[in-house]
Specification:
Order of helices and strands: HHEHEHEHEHEEHEHEH
Number of helices: 9
Largest sheet: 6 strands, parallel
Number of strands: 8
CATH class: Alpha Beta
CATH architecture: Alpha-Beta Barrel
Radius of gyration: 19 Å
Distance between the termini: 60 Å
Length: 258
């Protein structure tokens, strides 16, 4: 007769593994596409660069730069398993090699413009910087997506660049949690530790779509979100669920990413 309570206690105290944890697919309200478009448009009208959400809800935005690439499908598979959402900032000159990626990514969140060839836009003539954005925008539209987000490579931006993006209908998005997954030799465990330290409501996490260690780290990051009662969302969803206040600022992670 004593075995049953002991068995029940054992089940209660066992912590599930990262692969077993799933973010709830329907336990919270998700913004409609119309609400997301409205939130992005409102942010564009304010003319501010987005670095984080308001910090008042249960949403965290995971973002992946520099794709598409050979690990894109593996990233998407992990996100699907966890019922998680994300944003993918794509480099235009890679689209010819993975032309089906933008549509697949848009089904799991949002696709953004990360320039054509990943240069430091602030060091280019203005017309060349504009061409970097326009060419990628055109290529993504031809592949069936309509980007409304832009991320400058290396976090190198300026008021003039922000205005250029706005004229193309693009909201500039940075981040405030750097995974450091682009550091040479970084391990999946180090990526997870770096992200976990700064996870909080409204955070925008930067990762990259070029490293196998990122794919290996992703299940544990999603696990950490679930344990904190947070859900992984796209940038438009974050802006609809938890928009930042005007000029609120963000607690940026100490080391910049790219």
């Amino acid at each position: 007769m004593r075995r049953a309570p002991l068995a029940l206690l054992a089940l209660l105290v066992v912590v599930p593994t990262a692969s077993a944890v799933r973010l709830p697919a329907s336990s919270a309200t998700w913004p409609t596409p119309a609400a997301q478009r409205h939130a992005v448009a409102a942010a564009l009208r304010r003319g501010e660069v987005i670095g984080c959400g308001g910090g008042r809800a249960d949403a965290v935005a995971l973002t992946f730069d520099d794709g598409p690439g050979p690990y894109t499908e593996a990233l998407l598979r992990e996100l699907r398993r966890a019922h998680a959402r994300a944003t993918f900032f794509l480099v235009g000159d890679r689209l010819a090699y993975w032309p089906s990626a933008p549509r697949a990514e848009s089904r799991l969140g949002a696709v953004g413009n990360h320039t054509w060839s990943h240069p430091d836009l602030t060091r280019l003539p203005r017309w060349v910087a504009w061409l970097e954005l326009f060419r990628t925008q055109y290529a993504l539209r031809r592949l069936g997506t309509q980007p409304v987000l832009f991320r400058p490579p290396y976090e190198r931006t300026s008021p003039a660049l922000n205005r250029m993006a706005e004229r193309l209908g693009l909201l500039e998005v940075l981040w405030d949690v750097d995974s450091h997954d682009d550091v040479p030799g970084v391990t999946p465990a180090a990526i997870v530790r770096g992200v976990e330290r700064y996870l909080r409501p409204g955070a925008i996490v930067i990762m990259h779509d070029l490293h196998p260690a990122t794919v290996e780290a992703l299940p544990a990051i999603l696990h950490a979100l679930a344990l904190r009662g947070l859900r992984a969302v796209s940038i438009p969803e974050l802006l609809a669920i938890d928009p930042p206040a005007a000029r609120q600022g963000c607690p940026f992670s100490p080391v910049e990413g790219g």
